[in-house]
Amino acid sequence: MNLPPHQMVMTLLMTPDMANFSGNVHGGTLLKLLDEVAYACASRYAGTYVVTMSVDQVIFKEPVHIGEIVNFMASINRTGKTSMEVGVKVVAENIQTQQLRHVNSCYLTMVAMGTDKKPIPVKPFAPQTPEEIRRHDEAEKRIELRKAFKK
Fold first, then answer.
1. Which of 40, 86, 107, 132 is deepest in the core (most CB within 10 A)?
2. Quick check: is 2 in a domain?
3. What is the pLDDT of residues 93-116, one digit of tens each?
4. Domain-embedded: residue 128
5. pLDDT digits (tens, 9 = 90+) for 6-56
6. What pLDDT sits at residue 148?
7. C-alpha to C-alpha distance for 125 and 101, rounded to whole angstroms
8. Per the structure, how many domains does the chain have?
9. Could you tell me the CATH number of the domain that includes residue 89?
C-alpha cells in the first residue's frame, strides 16, 4: 500500500492477551495502539521524533472483540507551527463474515521535537481532496472550541 506521507494504516489481529474482564479488547490497549499509530503518522510526516500533547474526543462506539482484525487509519488533519492534529478512525473486521464496524475515533495532537528535546517547526499541511479539506476545517473548529473552553 502506497499512502501519501500524511496518512498511515496499521492493521492488527486482536489476540487474547488484549482482553479485559469482559472478554473484549481492553480500552487501554486501544488507547495505546491509537497513540502508536498517531506517533507513526506524525513522525513520518514531520521527519522527526514527536510527542503526544493531547488526546481529544476518544469515542468508543462499540466493543472490539478478540479475534477481529482491526485497522487504525491515521491522517494528518491540520498542522500548526510545531504541532499536528492526527485523526484516527478504527474499523474492526469480523474474519468469518468480513463485516466491518466503525468502532472508535479520536484526535491526537502531536508535537515535533528536535534533538535538543524542544519543539521544532513542521511543514504546513495543505489539504487537497474534499475529505482532507473537511477534516482540516473540522480541526480548526476543534481548536476554537479548546480556546473557548480555556477561557
1. 86
2. no
3. 999 999 999 999 999 999 999 999
4. yes
5. 999 999 999 999 999 998 999 999 999 999 999 999 999 999 999 999 998
6. 84
7. 29
8. 1
9. 3.10.129.10
Residue whose C-alpha cell reads 474534499 in the numeric block: 130
For the purposes of burial, counting CB atoms within 10 Å of the CB of 47, is it exposed (0-12), middle (13-18) or buried (19 or more)?
exposed
**Grid cell in block for residue 18:** 488484549
Using alpha carbons, select from 146, 2, 1, 150 the residue that is nearest to residue 78.
Answer: 146
Residue 1 lies in a domain: no
- Cell reading at 28: 487501554
As a residue count, the chain comes to 151
33 found inside a domain: yes
Spatial contact of 85 and 140, defined as CB atoms under 8 Å apart: no
Q: Would the pTM of this model clear 0.90, i.e. be above it?
A: yes
Residue 44 lies in domain: 7-150
- Virtual CA dihedral for 10, 146, 81, 89, nearest 10 degrees? 10
Residue with grid cell 480555556, as numbered in its chain:
150
Mean pLDDT value across residues 87-93? 97
